[in-house]
Amino acid sequence: MKPMRTFIILMAITSILAGCQSEKSNQIDSGSPIEVVLKSPYKPEGGAYFTISGSIEPEHFASLSTRNMGYVSKVYAKVGDQVRKGQLLIDINSDEIDAKKAQAQAGLMQAEAQLKVARKNLERYTALFNENSASQKELDDITLQHEIAKGNYERALQIQNEIDAMMAYSHIRAPFSGVITSKTVKMGDMARPGQTLMSLEAPGKFVARALVPESSIENIEKGQQVTVIVKSLGRSLKGNISEVSGSSQNSGGQYLIKMDLEESKDIKLFSGMYVSVLVPVSGEASNGIFVDQSALVQKGELDGIYTISESGTAILRWLKLGQSMGDQVEVLSGLSQEEKYIASSEGKLFNGAIVINQD
Q1: Measured between alpha carbons, how far is 333 from 337 in angstroms, rounded to an integer?
Q2: What's the pTM?
Q3: Distance between terminal CA atoms of the chain?
Q4: Given 91, 108, 117, 208, which is the most exposed site by the fewest CB atoms within 10 A?
Q5: What is the SS3 assignment for 283?
Q6: Which tens digit of pLDDT belongs to each residue from 292-327?
Q7: Which residues lie below 8 Å from residue 323, measured CB to CB, with a gap of 6+?
Q8: Domain architecture of the chain: domains with CATH
């Protein structure tokens, strides 16, 4: 029995030593301040609101295409190039259009020559009629010939104009000054009608566009003020709804809206950035605030966030959450707007951990 008693005593001593070591380790962790970043909750202005998703786009942009089928004979610009209005960007070789152009030019020249002859005959017979040297019938016949020649010339001119318009789609030019943002063809490719060949954006002013579901479109009005949050930057801008689509037929049952954005020198926008748009709902109040989703602590079905006590230690607060808005989530209860929360830390947080603000 003695060996057994010795074993039990050794296990007890080992357990006590381990406990002392663990307590010592915890004391060391508790005594080493953890650097943290504090952040105030975001409070949207106004009352209740709903959220829609959208993106940043330039106010002026164009997708350049052609109505003609033909081989691309020359590409004069590449992605990133600054181009001026009217600058030639793409040439498309179309033998069919070239043949029609030659035919139209020949027809126009012939009709113009016939009109000149008919005009001279009309002038001559008008003079003879005034001198009683030509009959009324002769003058009427010459007048009719002139009208026919004039009609033939106008039709030939119209055909020429149509061919010139078709030729314009064989020589793609910049509709405004801007930057080439995409190019889908190269020399030798076959260009087809309706195919996007290049995209052009005018630098400078940006707008936001978003799709509104049918259930919320009644709350959208032209001229309405909204808050536009740029997700990647975590910054917000004031917006004004300037366009509201009256149909959802071509947008999957949702309504497209456009928002003009306030100018801000501190926020650098790029085309394609994703945004969340807060649209106020009149007549309803809301006390909701928002925090970063990355700062949340999840344990089972509970969601919490760390705050800092007056003594400089971390405190885990349990929250009741609402809707998400980009990288942020609404807090319905458990945190007030005046309380700052720990957005990030240099170490693992726990209740009672000593923390120090990096700022």
Answers
A1: 10
A2: 0.50
A3: 64
A4: 117
A5: coil
A6: 989 999 998 899 999 999 899 999 999 988 777 667
A7: 51, 329, 330
A8: 32-45+288-357 (2.40.420.20), 49-59+204-280 (2.40.30.170), 67-90+172-198 (2.40.50.100), 95-169 (1.10.287.470)
